[in-house]
Every structure is written in structure tokens, then in C-alpha cells.
Amino acid sequence: MEREVNNRSIIAVFLAQPERFEELLKEGLFDGALLKDIGGFSKPFSIWRISQCWEMLADPNDFIEIARPDVEDFKKRNDRIIEIFKKELGVDFTPIDYQSYHDDFYCADPNCTPEDILLIKSAHEMLNMGFRKIDIDLYCAVAKFNFGETKMLLENGADPTVWLFNESGFQVEDYIRIESSLLDYNLQHFFPICKEGVIIERQDIHDLFGRAAYETMKLWIKKNVKGINIKDGLYE
Fold it and tell me: What is the rounded CA–CA span in Å between residue 126 and residue 133?
């Protein structure tokens, strides 16, 4: 499969170009099969998922003041494309099951053990060091993008701020922050300006998907954490 994306509809959606996308629709140049699958993922991935991923990231309040006008402009353009998908193409934007796409972005396989994820000989080793099983399980659930288990553990008192081993070891906050920063770096030449003529590779779509996954998990943790006063860092 070619690395570079050549389909004009995918490019228009990725770069948040609603006028161009509408033009392709009116000229009959949009391939309806893209509503089911754009290819390049381990399972069907719809073209509208691209806009859904950008929607997760295009919050002007998450950016420094000088960048906010560009982000706001990008958000408006992406919102218009989402409206086209919904009103003209009848798309129902359903939540993304990130865990089922575990082969398509950096995360732990659903079948990984705590030993695999934390690079230890035995989970009992950590229990003997005084760490709580619920905090170990939380880190692993987040690494696997298991939203259901993450919610259950948080509701039962798991702490996403705990460092496992030591301050250079493993922490949920740090894990999400580091991976998000790496993907932000990969995407920085697209967002928020998305200039005409930029070459898009399939890996860029995977990076966007992965960044949206980490943002979704971050917000999920913030929504469901119980009994912990998180004062700074990722969840401010």
C-alpha cells in the first residue's frame, strides 16, 4: 500500500477543507465506499472518523493565546465538514472503540499481562514493595485502552497520580503526557493551519487517531476519578 494519501476526499477531510469537500460531492467525485473504510487500518475505518478525531483536539482553550485564532478557524472548518457528513451523507457519529484498533496506534495489546506492560518478572514483586493492586491494574487498563475497566477502577479508588516503582518509573499521567507529546510533534505541521499542498501520509492519519485516543482517555480519567485531589499536571 502506498504511503502517501492521494484520494482527494480524504485529503480535504484531513485538512479540514469544507469547500473543497462539498465541491467533490457536487461533482460526483466522492467515493461512497469511504464512508465504510478508507483502508490502511487493521479493521474498517470510515473517512468521517478523521473529522471525529480532529474534533477531540481542536479546543482553542488547550492552546497558548497566540495560537488560538488559528485553532478556532480550524475548529470551525472541521465542524462544517462534520455537518456535511451528518446532513448530506446521513452519518451517525458513534463513539470510537479505540481498544479494537490496538494494532493501529501505540498501546498495549488487550492480552498483555502486567508483567508485559510494566517490564517486571512478577506483579507480586510490586505488591511486596507496598504498591496497591488497584493502581497497578489501572495503569495496565489505561495502557490497553480498556475504558470500561479504567472507569471501574477509578470509581473504586485507583489513583492515576501514583508512581509505580519511583519517580522515573510508571505513572498514568506521565504515560499519557509523553505519548501525547510525541504525537503532537508528529502532527504539528498539519494542525492548526493545515496549509494547501501539504503531503499527507497514511501514518499521519494513524498519528491523528492515536492522539485522539490519548486525549479521550485523559478526559475519561478526569471524568471518572474519585476521591483524589488532582492539583496540577495533566488533569488541570
Answer: 8
Q: Which residues share a beta bridge with 201?
A: 4
Considering the chain, what is the average pLDDT of its residues? 87
> How many Å apart are CA 62 and CA 183, to the nearest integer?
15
What pLDDT does 232 receive?
Answer: 41
Q: Three-state SS for 18?
A: helix
Amino acid at 186: N
pTM of the prediction? 0.87
How many Cβ atoms from other residues are within 10 Å of residue 126's Cβ?
20
CA separation, residue 102 to residues 38, 98, 114, 144, 180 (Å): 17, 7, 17, 8, 16
Q: Annotate 57-82 with b (16+ C-beta within 10 A) or e (fewer).
A: bbebeebeeeebeebebbbebbbbbb
Which grid coordinates belong to 223? Answer: 471524568
For residue 39, give the amino acid letter: G
